């Protein structure tokens, strides 16, 4: 009678491990899934921060209009589009995480700005985010903010919106239909954002004649 192999030995001999190709296939699939997860997470975070910016600019616009109703003028926080708070646009890339705001910062109060400074003269000493009583939720932001205002071409100082990049988008040169919007007191508020801290800006604007927040023409990754 021929000796038959023990059933246990048969089970052991039939077992085999993964081949190198199978292992590489699994690793590749896991890598693709991880990459997709990271892309999805980054997009969701960016969308959340973009929503936060839109809310902040809408809030600033409401407070500017309340200031006009009470004092008869808007408030400025910036002398130009690189004069932003809590940091300048160029400093965003070097920051990690959200940037803290402080009610004692000159950039928040603008107390040291001379009354006769262009874009600040029409409001006297009533300028800055403190006059607007604005503070972003949590006291910090991912973006740099600014507001530029004037008393209008029919006002005492004959202020026209400056020909800065974002200002020219809000009030296009030669836009006759828009001239009526800056014949009297006007403002535009803006945010410059570097969500990924890669040196590429996302820009947002709103103004006294609209309730919308617009994205600048040079935005990436929309």
What does this molecule look like?
- By secondary structure, the protein is of the alpha+beta class.
- The model has no long low-confidence stretch (mean pLDDT 86).
- The protein is elongated.
- A hairpin with a 6-residue loop joins strand 5 and strand 6.
- It has six helices and six strands.
- The strands form two sheets. It has a four-stranded antiparallel sheet with strand order 3-4-5-6. The protein has a two-stranded antiparallel sheet with strand order 1-2.
- It has one domain.
Summarize the structure.
The protein is α+β, with helices and mostly antiparallel strands and 222 residues long.
Class per helix and strand makeup: alpha+beta
Task: Please give the largest β-sheet.
Answer: 4 strands, antiparallel
Q: Spell out the helices and strands N to C.
A: HHEHHEEHHEEE
From the N-terminal CA to the C-terminal CA, the straight-line distance is 79 Å
């Amino acid at each position: 009678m021929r000796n038959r192999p023990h059933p246990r030995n048969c089970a052991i001999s039939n077992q085999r491990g993964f081949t190198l190709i199978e292992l590489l296939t699994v690793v590749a699939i896991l890598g693709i899934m991880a990459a997709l997860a990271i892309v999805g997470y980054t997009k969701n975070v960016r969308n959340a921060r973009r929503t936060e910016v839109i809310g902040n600019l809408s809030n600033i616009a409401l407070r500017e209009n309340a200031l006009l109703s009470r004092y008869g003028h808007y408030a400025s926080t910036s002398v130009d589009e690189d004069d932003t708070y809590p940091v300048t646009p160029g400093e965003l890339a070097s920051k990690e995480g959200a940037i803290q705001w402080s009610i004692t910062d000159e950039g928040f109060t603008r107390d040291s700005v001379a009354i006769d400074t262009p874009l600040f003269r029409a409001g006297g000493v009533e300028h800055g985010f403190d006059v607007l009583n604005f503070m972003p939720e949590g006291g910090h932001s991912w973006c740099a903010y600014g507001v530029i205002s004037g008393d209008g071409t029919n006002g005492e100082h004959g202020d026209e919106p400056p020909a800065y990049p974002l200002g020219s988008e809000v009030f296009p040169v030669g836009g006759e239909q828009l001239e009526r919007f800056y014949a009297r007191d006007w403002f535009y508020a803006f945010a410059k954002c570097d969500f990924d801290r890669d040196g590429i800006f996302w820009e947002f604007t709103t103004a006294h004649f609209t309730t919308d927040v617009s994205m600048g023409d040079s935005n990436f990754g929309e």
